[in-house]
Amino acid sequence: MFWEKRLAHWVDGIRDRSSLPLRLQLWNGQQFDFGQQAPQVTIRVPHASSLSYLLTPSLANLGKAYVEGKLEVEGRVSEIIGVANALASSTLKAEGKFGRIVRPFRHTRQKDAEAIQYHYDVSNDFYKLWLDENMVYSCAYFENGDEDLTTAQLKKIDHILTKIRIRPGDTLLDIGCGWGALAIRAAQKYGAKCVGITLSKNQHALAKERVEQAGLSDRVEIRLEDYRDASGTYDRITSVGMFEHVGVKNLPGYFTKIRSLLADDGFAMNHGITTTDVNNGEAVYGGGEFIEKYVFPHGELPHIGQVLKAMQEGGLEALDVENLRRHYAKTCSVWADNFEANADRIKRQVDDRRFRIWRVYLAGCSYAFAQDWVSLNQVVCSKAGRDITTLPWSRRYMYQ
Predict the structure, then answer these.
(1) Interacting residues of 97 by C-beta distance below 8 A, sequence separation 6+
(2) Phi-psi category of residue 172: left, alpha or beta, with phi > 0 → left and psi -120 to 50 → alpha
(3) What would the mean pLDDT of 33-55 be, rounded to a whole number?
(4) pTM
(5) Which residues, 6 or more positions from 397, have their beta carbon under 8 angstroms from its beta carbon?
(6) Which residues pair with 236 in a beta bridge?
(7) Tens digit of pLDDT for each residue in 131-175?
(8) Interhelix angle for 325-341 vs 352-370, to 10°?
(9) 3-state SS, residue 188
(10) Taking a C-beta distance cutoff of 8 angstroms, is the pair 129, 338 a contact?
(11) Which of 16, 114, 283, 347 fits a disulfide with 373 by CB distance 3.0 to 4.6 angstroms?
């Protein structure tokens, strides 16, 4: 049969190029091993119609097949991700259709709110099962590399607040405040007066509750608000893990908005994921296509060069840039491990399809950061053209 010859040719081609810890089992009992070592991953093909996903093994096709139940997969999720990438790289060219595709989206308040709520409003209990105890859903800061997740997330918040030179009595706006951890920390430890904004209804409700439980209602306000509607003047502004939803074309306007909210002598911090493709393209082999379809609708990643250009166009001067790619690879790895450890409890929170989406997404993100497909950059900035005597001489203050 045609499919038998094509499959045999495909298997032989991969075996010639690499040895993979993979076993392929077909619905008719036929079996293929892709290496001499014991298989660590098993892919079961329940029907001939599922072969099309396998024979063109982009990360988008393999991810879709797994999520939709077209292929059955067994093994540790980190090994599954490694095998999936090996199949893609052994079969496809990292260019053209499977290369760094630029996929711009039209961003409106309604579309952005829907995208945020799709991703973040799964349920608070779902996120509690694999995040740290403060529910910080962004790259942690492993100062020494051996911190537990909760410690590393607090160090990340302190690192940010130290970078922007937060002072007692400062007003702070946290754009995309999540479940309120940064705003709460800024008020408790540093004496700031904070406003946090989010488009997630679940985050808004729990963040308000956590502020009240901490006895900080007089110093922390959580609003359900679009950043484009924010008003007032703030001494300090933070945006952590939010600008991925803004859109590359909208970045100058986003930074212009931050400038309009920032005091003349203020400092702001933008912390977000960036692509390592200079043309603002997605991850190779269809990884970006999978994330856009199943995880982050309308998400766009700019290159750090584009970020700095847009920041300047928005009237802000970049004062410090720090790459935390290694930190996010570890953060996502810990999240993926937590997800696996709590798999049975998570399955009681979400359906099988969503469980599979998040399982491969978290481990896949760790792999993407480790491979330098994406990165994480913190950029400290202030209004352009300010008196140079108000700027620090060095970065020493960040680590004292």
Answers:
(1) none
(2) beta
(3) 89
(4) 0.92
(5) 162, 165
(6) 172, 267
(7) 999 999 999 999 999 999 999 999 999 999 999 999 999 999 999
(8) 150
(9) helix
(10) yes
(11) 283
Q: Tally Cβ neighbours within 10 Å of residue 271.
A: 25
- How far does Cα 77 stand from its chain's mean position? 18
Residue 194's H or E segment, with its range, is: strand 193-198
pLDDT of residue 11: 81
For 290-319, what is each residue's pLDDT tens digit? 887 777 777 789 999 999 999 999 999 999
d(CA 35, CA 206): 49
Cα within 13 Å of Cα(347), Cβ side? 7
How big is the chain, counted in residues? 400
Residue 241's nearest CA partner among 112, 131, 377 is 377
Beta-bridge partners for 24: 32, 43
Q: Which residues contact 93 (CB under 8 A, 6 or more apart)?
A: 99
Amino acid at 353: R
Residues with catalytic roles = 365
Q: Can you read off the two tokens belonging to residue 150?
A: 């909760």
β-bridge partners, 175 = 197, 239
Can you state the percent helix, strand and coil of the chain, rounding each to 5?
50, 20, 35
H-only helix segments in the chain: 2-17, 51-55, 59-67, 77-91, 109-120, 124-128, 149-163, 181-190, 201-213, 251-261, 287-294, 304-313, 325-341, 343-347, 352-370
Q: Which helix (H) or strand (E) holds 238?
A: strand 234-240
**Structure tokens that stand for 305 in this block:** 């060069």
Residue 201 contacts residue 117 (beta carbons within 8 Å): yes
Name residues whose C-beta falls within 8 Å of residue 50's C-beta, 6 or more positions apart in sequence.
65, 70, 71
CB atoms within 10 A of CB 297: 17
Radius of gyration of the chain (CA): 23
C-alpha torsion 20→90→4→26, nearest 10: 40
